[in-house]
Design brief:
The chain has 10 helices and 17 strands. By secondary structure, it is α+β, with helices and mostly antiparallel strands.
Amino acid sequence: MIADNDITQTMHEQVVAAIESKQPLRLTGGDTKAFYGNETQGEELHTSRHTGIVAYEPSELAVTVRAGTCTQELEALLAANGQMLAFEPPCLSSNSTIGGAIASGLAGPARPWRGGVRDHVLGTKLVTGKGKVASFGGQVMKNVAGYDVSRLMAGSLGTLGLILEVSLKVLPRPSHELTLALEMPETEAHEIGLALRKGGMPISASAYFDGCFYLRLSGAKSTVKSAANTIGGEALQAQDEFWKALRNQTHEFFQQFDRPLWRLSFPPATGAISRLDGSSLIEWGGSQRWVYSNIPVNLIRSIAEKHKGHATLYRGRLPGVSTFHPQAQVLLQIQKRLKQAMDPHGIFNPGRMNKDW
């Protein structure tokens, strides 16, 4: 077995060599999200052998793990201690890594209630675009000075640096959960969802699909039972399997491949949008909408902008179309300067976030 220090050194040397030769690198872990983002070219740098738990003290509610560690392995360890990754990262296969989870920035059903990926990042250890190994933030909640740099890694798709290790905040698993299924039109589901959210109900996930509104309640048994009696509906059998299928995108909705799959994000109060033609699934109380559609890219993105949202071409590339919604010029310049500061030689996943750099 190759020692971890040797693996770290090998990856570090590969980055340094790429900088010196001005050759780009394609960073990859389990490579389960290669479809997400714009295409990128370069010599592959794999983190999949860089595995293992660096530090874990359950009483501190924090864990430090190497980037190539399988997400399922980490979650099994946390579950054995009654804890969890609150942002529920999608595991698109058993090869999905925690480094990939952070780099993609994708969160599961609990996102609006428990926070997104960046909200749970305490610290990171990186190989920077200047060829240095650097640590940012901390390993526990009480020692997170400078963690804003670490949070930049969430959703950066490997364009700002090579993640070696990440420290994450974890949470206790809820003592009781119950999922309710209510058959109703989308407009009614949206109104009820908003009212329940304002009413302080113990909701930890919501989804609307095929005429049915699903609500997951989490917390103390008495609190969940009281909320369920107020809301009504039928208790969903095999609820864990249902939310796992949504989170890991094995649900029947995600098995369509004949049209592009769009991921649309909106403010929470956004109601039904009739112009979004096609098969759809709504999560996060209406904030996240998955839509299969062949309507022109300019139209779907103008609809998103009209409702103060944005549209991401999540799966299925189209000629000349960027994966990500065009940004306002001021934000684009900030992102460009950040890329230049973190990766001055432009070697990390060039073009993945923005086709121009």
